[in-house]
Amino acid sequence: MKADPERVARLSAEILERLEKLAVYTSSALTDFQSDERTVLAAKMLLVEAVEGAAALYNHILARVFREAPGGFILCFEALAVRLGWEEEFRHRLRRLARFRNELIHEYREITPDQVYQIARQEADALREMVRRVREWLQAKTDEG
Fold first, then answer.
1. Which of 9, 52, 58, 121 could bond to 76 as cystine, CB 3.0-4.6 Å?
2. pLDDT tens column, 52-109
3. Rounded distance, CA 107 to CA 93, Å?
């Protein structure tokens, strides 16, 4: 079975939209970011939504293309990344984002504004790269026939 191109396009657009907004919120200096509680809260939510969108995209592809349904955010990120042959360093970045999302949602530990800022600025681009890679892979599959 094939991935639904409309669903892939919608999920990809939502992820990229969240990342664009996140970039705006984290474009200021760290001290400015830390001092504005609304900005910190918005950045947290945008990170969560971007990671959840990525998981929805991954799960859609895993279910439709590979007939696989892994559980949990980290597992779905890892399952598709392995199937597509992505390098370990990139997979590590994706796992880190999934873990960070879990920590934010489930409050496993106190997340500081500094940590949100650093993850947003250093790791969130992995989601943008993931969207690009998934789109290229799906295009290549479509071109194959």
1. 58
2. 999 999 999 999 999 987 778 888 889 999 999 999 999 999 999 999 999 999 886 7
3. 20
State the CATH number of the domain containing residue 50: 1.20.120.580
Q: How far, CA to CA in Å, does 14 sit from each of 10, 23, 73?
A: 6, 14, 17
**In this structure, what token pair is assigned to residue 51?**
């990671």
Do residues 55 and 98 touch, judged by C-beta distance below 8 A? Answer: yes
Instruction: Give pTM, 2 decimals.
Output: 0.93
Count CB-CB contacts under 10 A for residue 31.
7
Its domain, for residue 12, covers: 5-144
Domain count, the chain: 1
Spatial distance between the Cα atoms of 78 and 43, rounded to a whole number of angstroms: 24
DSSP string, 8-58: HHHHHHHHHHHHHHHHHHTSS-HHHHHH-HHHHHHHHHHHHHHHHHHHHHH
Q: How many CB atoms lie within 10 A of CB 115?
A: 15
